[in-house]
Amino acid sequence: xxxxxxxxxxxxxxxxxxxxxxxxxxxxxxxxxxxxxxxxxxxxxxxxxxxxxxxxxxxxxxxxxxxxxxxxxxxxxxxxxxxxxxxxxxxxxxxxxxxxxxxxxxxxxxxxxxxxxxxxxxxxxxxxxxxxxxxxxxxxxxxxxxxxxxxxxxxxxxxxxxxxxxxxxxxxxxxxxxxxxxxxxxxxxxxxxxxxxxxxxxxxxxxxxxxxxxxxxxxxxxxxxxxxxxxxxxxxxxxxxxxxxxxxxxxxxxx
Length: 255
What we know:
The chain has one domain. The protein is built from eleven helices and no strands. Helix 5 packs parallel to helix 10, helix 7 packs parallel to helix 10 and helix 9 runs antiparallel to helix 10. The longest helix has 55 residues. The protein starts with a helix and ends with a helix. 27% of the residues are buried. The C terminus is likely disordered.
């Protein structure tokens, strides 16, 4: 009987030891080290750019184009280039006091969009009032086209860049869920989250390019409109100096 109890205790101790070893080895494995390749935050700019996929390249090209036209507009739409202060008054005073020749000389001394419009009217100063106004209106339309033509690329970039970002996001989401289907990554949220984050990089990049271009487009468009109004005012004063006040204005002044 004693031998039986001894054997039974020995068996219990052996089972307990085996259970302890099995519990230690069969428990949940320690969490794997984070996959650095699945992380988007913390990378340098170049690696983050490459993580966005192939559509990051056309977005980069759009940003370069937009930046180039922003600087071009800043140079071309300067006040001194389009409507220099004092030029309109100087030409009108020359037309009143010295005649057409002096007014034309004042235009040639300070070339600008304003002086070219006024010079078009002075070139037909010997004709009727309507012909002078028509000549300056046509010259003004040409100058307005030159002032507006490089605003359009900013509008195009601000429209196309978000679409490229959205296209890249759709492409990235397709690829991310394809990985889920192939490897069963739905059990590991980190892999799916990394794929989604990579896909959203293109949308972020596209909006980063589009928003400044959109703002600068409307800023330069408004600046162009203000300068066109100044040119029209100077042209109207020149017509009055060459041909006298308009009949309607003269009638009002007499009344």
